[in-house]
Amino acid sequence: QAKRDDHAHIAFYDARAEQIAREYIELHTALRQALDEQEFQLHYQPQTLADGQVVGAEALIRWQRPGHGLISPLSFIPAAERSGLILPLGEWVLQEACRTLQRWHKSPATASLTLSINVSTRQFHQDDFIHQVAQALQLSQANPRQLKLELTESLLAEDLDKVVDTMKALANLGVQISLDDFGTGYSSLQYLQRLPLHQIKVDQSFIRELLNKNSKDTAIVRTLLSLGEAFGFAVLAEGVETREQLNYLCQLGYTEFQGYYFSPPLPLTQFETYCQRHID
Ligand code: C2E
Ligand code: MG
Ligand code: MG
Ligand code: MG
C-alpha cells in the first residue's frame, strides 16, 4: 500500500518536472521570436528630487506578447539569463536607451535627464561589452554622461580585479555606474572603495519597513547615506511609495528618489508628458 503511494508520488513529480522543462523550452523559443518580432519595449520610471522635479529615469523592459498582454521582466529575465538570450536582449536595451537619450535632447523638459539601464552580470562579462556601449553611444550621438549602467552586487562575487578593470573602462567612456538593489547582496565595504561608482540605489526592501517602529532599517538607510558621503557617490532611495516614507527619508538627508509615490514606470510618450508637467 505504502509502496504504491510512493510510486504515485514519483510519477507526479516526474510529470511536474517534465512540464517545467517543456514550459522553459517554450518560453525560450517565444523569447527568441519576440526579439525578432520586436515585441519588447522600454518603460521609463522617473527619478526625482523631493519636490518631484525629474532628474532622470530608469528604463525597465516589458514584453508586449500577443495574446498575453504586457509581461513583467520578473517572469522572463531569469529565463533569458539562463539561456543566454539576455545577451542580444541586453544589447537591444542598450541601443534603445541611447536612441531615447538622443530623442530627449530635442526637448528642454528632457534634454538633461540621465537614463539608467539594468545590465545583467552575464552581459557585463562579455568580452566586447565595452565596445557595445561605445558603439551604441556613437551611433546615437547620445551624451555618455547621461547614460547610467545599473549593476548588481552579484557582480562582485568573483574576479573583482577584472570587474574593476571593466568598470574603469566604462567610466572612461564617460558613462556613470550605479549599484542596484544595494544592501541585498554581496557587499563588502572594502570593495566599495575600489569601484568607480557614481551611485548606489538603496533597495526597496529597506524603504518598505522604514516606518515600522521595531525596524532596524533606519540604521541601515542612515548608514548607506554616510557611506555615499564618505566614498563620494550619490545615494538614491528606491521603492518610495508614500508621503510618510518620503518625509522620513528627507529628514535622514536623502535627496533622490524613485517609486510609485511619484510615478510607476511609464511608456515613452507618457513619461515625456509627465516631464512637461513637472518642470520646476
Ligand atoms: P530593478 O532594477 O530593481 O527595478 C525596480 C523595480 O521595482 C521595477 O520592477 C519597478 O517597476 C519596481 N518599482 C518601482 N517603484 C516601486 C515602488 O514604489 N514599489 C514597488 N513595490 N516596486 C516598485 P520591474 O519593472 O518589474 O522590474 C523588475 C526587475 O527586472 C528590475 O528590478 C530588474 O532587476 C529587472 N529588469 C528590468 N528591466 C531590465 C532590463 O532591461 N535588463 C535586465 N537585465 N533586467 C531588467
Ligand atoms: Mg534597476
Ligand atoms: Mg533596484
Ligand atoms: Mg530589484
From TrEMBL:
Superkingdom in the source lineage: Bacteria
Q: Where is the EAL domain?
A: 24-279
Protein's name according to its UniProt entry = cyclic-guanylate-specific phosphodiesterase
Q: Which organism is it from?
A: Nitrincola lacisaponensis
